């Protein structure tokens, strides 16, 4: 595995340590380039980190944030990743320029081209990408059982509409090349089940079987896995 595994005693320590690193990266980007950009995960695991990050003294008006993926749902849906971000980081730091993935089109397939156009005008590379991982090895919404996965693991588009028979809601996800178009990428996971998946991902096998391998194996972007037991 090229990405080191950083083990923390608990989720709170993990969250504070990652918030420290994110604060330093954003502060440096603002000082060096006048602005900073990051892409953030949905799901349940990242909330302590997003809350911790919101308490940091960053010049938030100079920060642009988007999501690594979202469920194709209106932003007030409780299952929307944008709703989670609004309830955590954006509640504490409303000056952030938030660029949602959901754009109101009836399906992610219908919204994909407009979303790709929006993403293409964002800064490249991101200063930081944080992604979660599911127990099937998916990162962002790169699900192993999504029929269109191959086109999201490779290819020029920054985002893809994806549907997984095992996941609720159709999705819009950053593609693997866009996720890796970052100065730093961190996979944020907790629990024994995900640690076991991570160990399986270190074995030989295709990226399409466990998409997290696409982050662990690459050498383009400095990567790490942050894990705590709970
Ligand atoms: O559906 C999703 O799941 C993954 C993992 O979520 P978690 O609740 O197990 O942490 C998440 O990283 C992704 O952004 C989300 O859309």
From TrEMBL:
Stretches assigned to the Glucosamine/galactosamine-6-phosphate isomerase domain: 9-218
Organism, scientific name: Azospirillum cavernae
Known role: Hydrolysis of 6-phosphogluconolactone to 6-phosphogluconate.
GO molecular function, one term: 6-phosphogluconolactonase activity
GO BP terms: carbohydrate metabolic process; pentose-phosphate shunt
EC numbers, comma separated: 3.1.1.31
Reactions listed under catalytic activity: 6-phospho-D-glucono-1,5-lactone + H2O = 6-phospho-D-gluconate + H(+)
UniProt pathway: Carbohydrate degradation; pentose phosphate pathway; D-ribulose 5-phosphate from D-glucose 6-phosphate (oxidative stage): step 2/3
InterPro entries linked to this entry: 6-phosphogluconolactonase_DevB, 6PGL, Glc/Gal-6P_isomerase, NagB/RpiA_transferase-like
NCBIfam families recorded: pgl
Enzyme class: hydrolase
Key words of the record: Hydrolase
Family: Belongs to the glucosamine/galactosamine-6-phosphate isomerase family. 6-phosphogluconolactonase subfamily.
Protein name: 6-phosphogluconolactonase
């Amino acid at each position: 595995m090229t990405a080191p595994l950083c083990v923390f005693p608990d989720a709170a320590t993990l969250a504070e340590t990652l918030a420290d690193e994110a604060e330093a990266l954003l502060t440096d980007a603002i000082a060096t380039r006048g602005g900073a950009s990051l892409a953030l995960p949905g799901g349940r695991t990242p909330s302590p980190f997003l809350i911790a990050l919101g308490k940091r003294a960053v010049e938030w008006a100079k920060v642009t944030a988007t999501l690594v993926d979202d469920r194709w749902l209106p932003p007030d849906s409780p299952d929307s990743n944008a709703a989670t971000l609004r309830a955590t980081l954006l509640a504490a730091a409303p000056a952030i320029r938030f660029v949602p993935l959901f754009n109101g089109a009836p399906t992610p397939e219908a919204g994909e081209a407009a979303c790709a156009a929006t993403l293409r005008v964002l800064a490249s590379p991101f200063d930081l990408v944080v992604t979660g991982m599911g127990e099937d090895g998916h990162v962002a919404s790169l699900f192993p059982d999504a029929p269109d996965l191959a086109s999201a693991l490779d290819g020029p588009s920054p985002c893809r509409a994806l549907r997984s028979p095992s996941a609720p809601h159709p999705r819009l996800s950053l593609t693997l090349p866009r996720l890796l178009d970052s100065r730093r990428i961190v996979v944020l996971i907790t629990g024994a089940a995900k640690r076991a998946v991570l160990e399986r991902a270190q074995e030989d096998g295709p990226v399409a079987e466990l998409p997290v391998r696409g982050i662990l194996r690459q050498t383009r972007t400095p990567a790490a896995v942050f894990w705590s037991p709970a």
